[in-house]
């Protein structure tokens, strides 16, 4: 039962953490800390931590996309593996390609725009994965054929 919901849980953690860090916490840092430099340093640390949450969630999704000793992927995996890999790649590119340039203040406007765009694309990837994994996790419960039990 938990195995059927684990993909949706991993996707929810991924999408929820991206949403919280990128659209709530970091803007609050810039609004409330005394200097933009101080907010930027803290934001860089939060985005780095977010990258590792993304890596963990995506690796979990990749690992559970195929049952042990099975040739075929899980039903949810067929629809989302491209988005999982895309989101993972975007997170790593932002962390190791774009972020160092922002921290070094190299052409700040350009690299901040590139990083923001890539973060939003990663957020969209996570949203698609969440949407589709929840659909698959809920579908057996709606059909009455799945392992869902009241209250679980």
Could you provide a short overview of the structure?
With 152 residues, the chain is an all-alpha fold.
General description of the model:
This protein is mainly alpha-helical and 152 residues long. It has one domain (2-143). The chain contains four helices and no strands. Helix 1 (2-32) runs antiparallel to helix 4 (108-143) and helix 3 packs antiparallel against helix 4. It is elongated. The chain starts with a helix and ends in a 9-residue tail after the last helix.
Q: Helix share of residues? A: over 70%
Structural class based on helices, strands and sheet pairing = mainly alpha
Radius of gyration: 18 Å
Number of domains: 1
H and E order: HHHH
Uncertain spans, ≥5 residues at pLDDT below 50?
A: 147-152
Principal-axis shape: elongated
Tally of DSSP helical segments: 4
- Straight-line distance between termini: 9 Å
Got a strand count? 0
Main sheet: strands, sense, barrel: none
